[in-house]
Design a protein that fits this description.
Nonspecific Lipid-transfer Protein, Chain A; 43% helix; seven-stranded mixed sheet; 410 residues; Rossmann fold; 17 helices; single chain; alpha/beta; elongated
């Protein structure tokens, strides 16, 4: 059996894919929209040394395996593939026989784009390293991928044909309305990214807004944008750990895409710290990616841990709601926006494809390939309900008074 046929048997003969290999072999559907090309024996070494998702990712990221065609289509075609979980023993034996075991196990270095974080998990130092790995890539690169909003979280689509920019504006405005923002209030936005929520609250609601982020490049970009927008009297973004914010008495706290970086062990203290930043009657809006239930492990592993979000953890929605309830808050509203995140990622994938040559020049081909793979994979994950996006609105009670409307106003 030749290499292309071996890989086809691992992926599944029913998959609408074409396979080619460096030995000249070809298999699969020659009219398929996607072709998987094994370009080097190193691709097989990656698959052998880290069978499953991680080995496949290393082969693609290093370019020893290529995917020609739409990445999302490729991943959707391989969604039930055995090769993304574990190389079957029979297939592994065929590869070993074909190449010789010594060449198959030829040691290959870990790609330079793999994360290398040090110290105690979720310590301030290690969290800083983990955030820098993903967010301190290049502001220009993110401008191409995210578009003018520079919002790197799930958008909210007011209609099926709304643009990505409309949907990001709608997301920020939904958060503002859930928090009941009014002129003169004070907002703390933890994990604020490039300051989109901070600037929205200041510009459209007259709120004094403070954002904090562990990414130095994000903070620098946001402060420049705030000044250019004439919002410096109301808005500020600091390069700062949320645990080190000295101020208190805020009217509202938004956390949009931070909880994924906190970890299950630290979740109660995280919630209590946000509770302590609020005045009585103040509201918290927590927006984050979750597991679809509370039955799976929380730690993100494999490709996503090594390349995308080091030390990331995804909790079940019930776990998060219970932690918020049990640490000083009363939960008042919750909703799942997973379909909206799939649409958001579709927009980001298109943006990356449209700017592929510039992105490769800016951050290097390995890193651009990481983003292409992870965003398409995430889109698929939301579509098939492997992951979800939940917004939870809670209030720090004023005695027994929630100061909430009888029915939602948003």
């Amino acid at each position: 059996m030749r290499l292309a046929e071996i890989i086809e048997s691992a992926v599944g003969r029913e998959a609408p894919l074409e396979f080619t290999a460096y030995d000249g072999s070809r298999a699969g559907d020659r009219n398929a929209p996607v072709r998987i090309d094994l370009r080097s024996p190193l691709a097989l070494s990656h698959l052998a040394s880290a069978p499953g998702e991680l080995g496949l990712a290393r082969a693609y990221v290093t370019g020893t395996m290529d995917i020609h065609g739409d990445m999302y289509t490729a991943l959707a075609s391989m969604a039930t593939s055995t090769v993304t979980e574990q190389v079957p023993a029979k297939v592994f034996a065929q590869v070993a026989l074909r190449l010789g075991m010594s060449r198959l196990w030829w040691p290959v270095p870990r790609p330079a784009t793999e994360a290398r974080v040090h110290g105690r998990r979720h310590s301030k130092r290690r969290d800083q390293e983990a955030i820098a790995h993903h967010y301190d890539v290049s502001n220009r690169f993110y401008e191409w991928v995210l578009g003018p909003s520079m919002a790197y979280t799930c958008a909210v689509y007011p209609s099926d044909d709304a643009s990505l920019e409309e949907a990001q504006w709608t997301k920020h405005d939904l958060v503002a309305r859930k928090l009941g923002l009014k002129e003169g209030m004070r907002l703390l936005d933890v994990g604020c990214g490039w300051g989109g929520m901070v600037m929205h609250a200041a510009k459209h609601y007259g709120v004094r807004a403070l954002g904090v982020t562990l990414s130095r490049k994000q903070a620098e970009w946001a402060q420049k944008k705030i000044a250019e927008s004439g919002l410096s009297d109301l808005a500020e973004v600091r390069h700062l750990d949320y645990r080190d914010v000295a101020e208190g008495g805020f009217d509202a706290v938004s956390s949009i895409g931070l909880t994924e970086h906190i970890g299950a062990a630290a979740l109660p203290s995280y919630v209590r710290s946000l509770h302590d930043k609020l005045r009585p009657g103040g509201r918290l809006l927590n927006h984050c990616i979750t597991r679809p239930d509370n039955l799976h492990g929380t730690r993100v592993k494999g490709f996503f841990d090594r390349y995308v979000f080091p030390d990331g953890e995804l909790l079940g929605p019930g776990h998060i709601i219970s932690a918020i309830h049990d640490n000083g808050f009363e939960v008042r509203h919750e909703e799942n926006l997973r379909e909206h995140y799939a649409k958001t990622l579709t927009g980001w994938c298109k943006n990356l494809d449209d700017h592929w040559a510039e992105a490769v020049e800016e951050v290097g081909e390995e890193r651009a390939r990481v983003w292409r793979l992870y965003m398409a994979g995430s889109r698929l994950g939301f579509e098939i309900n492997n992951i979800q996006l939940h917004q939870v609105l809670a209030v720090r009670l004023d005695g027994t008074n929630s100061h909430m409307p009888l029915r939602p106003e948003w």
